[in-house]
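Bug #77: duplicate submission created two jobs. Keeping one. Sequence:
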Amino acid sequence: MDAANAPSADDIRRLAFVDHGRTPLRLTEAGQLADLSFAVKDLFDIAGYRSAWGNPDQLRDGAIAVATAPSVLVPLAAGATMIGKTNTDEVACGMFGMNPHFGIPINPKAPDRVPGGSSSGSASAVAAGLCDFALGTDTGGSIRVPASFCGIYGLRTTYGRLSAAGVMAMAPSFDTVGWLANDPKTLRRVAECYFGPARKPKPPRFLLARDAFEIPEDAIGQALLPIARAIGEAKEITLYDEGVEFWLDTFRPLQLHDLWSTLGGWGTTPGRTLSQAVDERIKLASTVKPEAVATAVPRREALTDRLLDLLGDDGVIIIPTAHDLPPRRDAPVSAQIAFREKTLALTCVASLTRLPQIAIPATSVDGCPVGLSLIGSPRSEAQLIAVAEQLGDLTKLRFR
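Kept job's structure:
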């Protein structure tokens, strides 16, 4: 897109934020984040407001929150100013940010392409410099994918480490809280508010998941692999010992069963307004067989045990974040489904094993940002952020 047609800051703001949560909120002028502003994905409760979850029926009928989600209170208590609530894929069921009810947030780094979802508005606002950081949720890649698409940093925290109270549940055995920022220093400052001062992390033992770099489209894999190898001395490993399909076949029934358990009744209420993509997703969730769930549960534990053994307390796995460039804004639902399945092969690793992952801007291909990711052991957020800080700007690396 040429400069004459580039979106303005007002255009980006209009689509990144939702009208029902634009009132700024500040609890104190003192604190370690007093100089920072942040935004909150419209799945988090803010006392006195409705959370629409990206759906017009929920905006109309949902209860006004009586309490603010604990994960929002933490930065507020540290002095940060919340500037508004951000757009999301409908009920967090999306990887692209394509919401037909509230609009598609703009990807400031590639305006003709989607920003990624479901933390779409949060990523758009951060990438445009409208706020210093933004809270989101990550179930199957909802922070990591928009971070990659928008050329920013995104942190998925260890499952269960941060409270999900007051946050819409989509798939409760996967849902995590995390945040996005333009630099790892801001990620670290926010992390210290949640987790306390970080102890000096152990030097990382890098594990390059060589087979993971065969999943992306050729141009993506070829651009990322030399950058991954330049990060530091790394042992090349096979991540998908059981095969990629084994991982996906474990993820799908568990995540879909969670979705049906939490939102199936709501989504199938007569007269419910749903987008085509979400309607199809909820209908698919209703078809998951109990025996498929029962089979997937021990598989998940076996995969988790293998990765925990592999990581120890100092291992860091290097993988691509997404398999391809962001789809164009007018991509049909069929193209979204095909894209989602391939990128899920990468994002399901941390999701299934409940591990933290940081998405880092790495390069660009055809003018679009492309991210690299680091997966660590449980509660290793400080180590992952420290590595990101030490690496500096990967997009400035040049190779012959």
